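Q: Hi! First time doing this. I have a protein sequence and I read that you can turn it into a structure. Is that right? Here it is:
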Amino acid sequence: MPKAVVLLSGGMDSATTLAIAREQGFDCLALSFSYGQRHALELDAARAVAGRYGVRQETVIIDLRSLGGSALTADIPVPKDRPLAGMGKEIPVTYVPARNTIFLAFALAWAEVSGARDIFLGVNALDYSGYPDCRPEYIAAFERMANLATKAGVEGVRFTIHAPLIAMTKKEIVARGLELGVDYGMTVSCYDPVPGPLACGRCDACLLRLSAFAGLGKKDPAAYR
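A: Yes, that's right. Below is the predicted 3D structure, encoded as structure tokens:
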């Protein structure tokens, strides 16, 4: 089985991506990040999801709070109750500067060391919050860079960045995950959970997730306030 590094945040999209990578026949290595985010619940979820699939998981510790600039890494309120129709039209304060570039750089390093030639991440360019590093042109640009900037790439090995959810709606993502048996009750999507721990049900991530399940006539198994 060919190896692949999968970015695993513990959220709905990354869990679905891991399930897709495994279905495609990859021996997966899960990579998570403790980067100074508002809460560590997603890291607990990532460990649980990795354990469910029996894949090796590593967690990289970096401190993006020292840089700030985001509601996820600084004392900036998380936007709540935004209309779904308005999401994606502007870049919200939950955007973490260069986060996917940083994460993919670590994934590329692990891929080169481990002999993996494929990297999977769960970015989405349809139902999303307007992040510039979730667009197809960004993924294509990073893939070009990966093959220019590595010893393996110079020696003729080709790295491929897979974003299997990039052209899917959240509803389609949930439907695909349910087909693959993803347990969404193990995942955490909320940007700003309340004590319990419970998802707030009002941030962009919660609203998109709830809308996806509702569109399928399903109940989201996550616990909400």
